[in-house]
Amino acid sequence: MSIFAPSFQLPEAMSASAANVDALYSFIFWLSVVLFVGIMVATVYFVWVYRKRPGHKAEPTGHNLFLQIGLAVAPIPLLVGMFHWGFKGYMDMSIAPAGAMEVRVRGFQWGWEFEYPGGETDSVLHVPVNRPVKLIMSSSDVLHSFYVPQLRVKRDLVPGMFTSLWFQPDKTGKMDVFCTEYCGGKSKDQNGNELAPSEYKGHWSMLSQIVVDTQEDFDKYIQGKGTPKDPVEFGKALYTQKGCNACHSVDGSVGVAPSWKGLWARSEPMLDGSMVTVDGNYLRESIVLPSAKIVKGYGSPSIMPSYQGLKDKEIDAIIEYMKTLK
Amino acid sequence: MAALDIPIAGGQTGDEAHGDPNVNYLKANRGVMSWLWTVDHKRIGLLYLSTVALAFLVGGLFALVMRLELFTAGKTIVDPETYHRFFTLHGVVMVFLFLIPAIPAVLGNFLLPLMVGARGLAFPRLNMLSFYIYVTGAVFCVAAIIMESADTGWTFYTPYSMATKGCVLALMLSVMVLGLSSILTGINFIVTIHKMRAPGLTWARLPLFGWGMYATAITQILATPVLVITLGLLIFERVLGLGLFDPKLGGDPVLFQHFFWFYAHPAVYITVVSGMAVVSEIIATFSRRAVFGQLAIATSSLALALLGVSRLGKPHVSCRYE
After folding, report:
1. A59: closest chain B residue by CA
2. First and final CA of chain A: distance in angstroms?
């Protein structure tokens, strides 16, 4: 392995965008090496040449405005270039392509749960190679952060909000998932008794793996999970169980509350005049805090009670059900 | 500049000591009380030096325990809870008791009046007050260490800082109080540089260390109040359950991060601008040259401080809405 290859310093890159991150990293790293060596050599040279010695008197140099301005301006194109490169990469890594496989990620103290589009769940994430995967992440307790060094991606999980990231693995294999937002830990049980060190749980043990399979192996893995509860069916059941049907129709008829039909991804005018695109975060807020945003034409505060008691999984299922009501 | 009739080095005024080569700020007065109640900027600088050095030692010891714990996998010397408390205390002690006051409160107090040709800082008693507020903050920190302190990390991120059982309040109060001390030092420096420069010492001639302290002081008085208010809100949140940051009550944990980094991002510049100010003077002195590009360095220090404060902590918040 060459010392000039980024993988000499970084873990193996396992996605297309990871290679771009590494290219930028290498550029900045080697630029720094060149500048550092150049500055040090120049410093040592000048210290030696202009050292104090008999027969030489110090000659004060005046100010050179042209040189000062030049030194300040010269690095600007370089900095702007690096910013452009980095920001473009960041934007590419922020916006998932259409048709990406959507996986729900739920972080909790101290572990991960992954839910596939069909409703299958697991504590490790299997993904097929060469297909974009979009993660929609939430936390059920405190801040966590989803970090996969091999993919060069990291994003916080914030309670009460969905965050997302996407990646497209370009080779099969295994990757490590870490939590990189400190989230506590324990070495005692509920009664305050000291646990054996092997029983300690915490931020450091919040680990998982991403297994990149071939498409066939991935299909086999999903089939092996058996027939799970379909999130759409689950959401449909919750629609009546939780009493949403008392006010929200699914056929487009409007009563005391907006119908769910065609609601997903629509732009809705709000009472305060703003426009809101109906997405996961908006729906989640409206379920948990109904009065936070009121649709135009309805009274404020909302007559809807808060559904703070719903589990993340139930909110996710209701949203999945709403998406099917086109 | 009107002569300030303030006592320096205890009860003796500067004029009495002036001109006597055998009397300096160390010898002008004797006894513990002459040090504890001093309003002399050099003595206060030395008091800060002793406490800041002590804080550096304590913060370093916490780091040492952490590195020892990491020597082997699993438990080496401390359990996870203790480890979490120690990295929190390491962060708080190093940032708020050492890094922030290190150069402004020690070298700034000692050198700034000499460099601008003033007898002392503009508000000597305020300077003493700021030292004792610093000591009070340090006492809260020691209390937090004794009473199983917080395990939140130095950033106190919610909701974890709401949920944890550790004694978070003492540590938050410590940081709040230390913030007040930092603000008072900042005010003192700004007034001194504006109003007490010797005749002929124009802004263009102000030494680079003075410029560095000026930029630092601006950051201290613009950004630190936000930290103090934010931690105050966090204390209210924890004690009264206000629901500002707790998503269960409709709050937003990311709001806390924005508030916190409104301070903590410029705080990085407090450290680096002070450091660069010191380096500028050392190089100029020992190479026996005027600094090349004095004006450029001075204005860039100031620009760094102002841009730092105006960045609203955005670069540090890594989460994005879907």
Report:
1. B289
2. 53
CATH of the domain at B293: 1.20.210.10
Q: B150: domain range? A: 30-316
In a domain, B3, yes or no: no
Beta partners for residue A122, in sequence order: A114
Instruction: Answer whether A185 touches B (CB < 8 Å).
Output: yes
Inter-chain touch B81–A61, beta carbons under 8 Å = no
CA dihedral A301, A305, A306, A307 (to 10 degrees): -150
Least confident of A206-210, B104-108, B265-269: B265-269
In chain B, the number of structural domains is 1
Please indicate, yes or no, if residue B241 is contained in any of the structural domains.
yes
Q: Which two tokens stand for residue B299?
A: 């204005």
Residue B296 is nearest to which of A68, A141, A279, comparing CB atoms? A68
Strands A125-128 and A208-213, sheet pairing: parallel
E-state strands within chain B: none
Residues forming a β-bridge with A295: A270
Every domain of chain A and the residues it spans: 6-94, 101-224, 231-324
Tell me whether residue B19 is in a domain.
no
Q: Name every chain A residue with its beta carbon within 8 A of the beta carbon of B152.
A: 182
Q: What is the rounded distance in angstroms from the CA atom of residue A6 to the CA atom of residue A90?
A: 19
Nearest one of A260, A271, A281, A279 to A326, comparing CA atoms: A260
The domain made up of A6-94 is a member of CATH 1.10.150.110: no
The pLDDT assigned to A140 comes to 87
For residue B185, is it within any domain? yes
CB spacing of A154 vs B84 below 8 angstroms: no
- The answer to whether the predicted template modeling score (pTM) of the entire model surpasses 0.95 is no
User: Six-digit token pair at A118?
Assistant: 């069909």
* Range A231-324 classified under CATH 1.10.760.10: yes
Class of domain A101-224: mainly beta
Enumerate the residues of chain B whose CB falls inside 8 A of the CB of residue A163. Answer: 319-322
Which tens digit of pLDDT belongs to each residue from A4-17?
666 678 888 899 88
- Which residues, including other chains, have CB under 8 Å from residue A288's CB and lie 6 or more apart? A160, A306, A307, A308, A310, A315, B250
Name every chain B residue with its beta carbon within 8 A of the beta carbon of A190: none
Residue A194 forms contact with B (CB below 8 Å): yes
Q: How far, in Å, are B132, B173, B183 from residue B139 at the CA level?
A: 10, 10, 19
* DSSP code string of A311-326: -HHHHHHHHHHHHH--
φ/ψ region of A8 (left if φ > 0, alpha if ψ in -120 to 50, else beta) reads: alpha
Numbered residues of chain B with Cβ closer than 8 Å to any chain A Cβ: 74-75, 79-81, 84, 151-153, 157, 159-160, 163-164, 247-248, 250, 252-254, 288-290, 292-293, 296, 318-322
CB contact under 8 A, A308 and B247: no
Q: Please tell me if residue A290 touches chain B, with a CB cutoff of 8 Å.
A: no
What does the pLDDT look like over B219-259, one tens digit per residue? 999 999 999 999 999 988 888 888 888 887 778 898 898 88
Residues 118-137 of A with CB under 8 A from B: 136
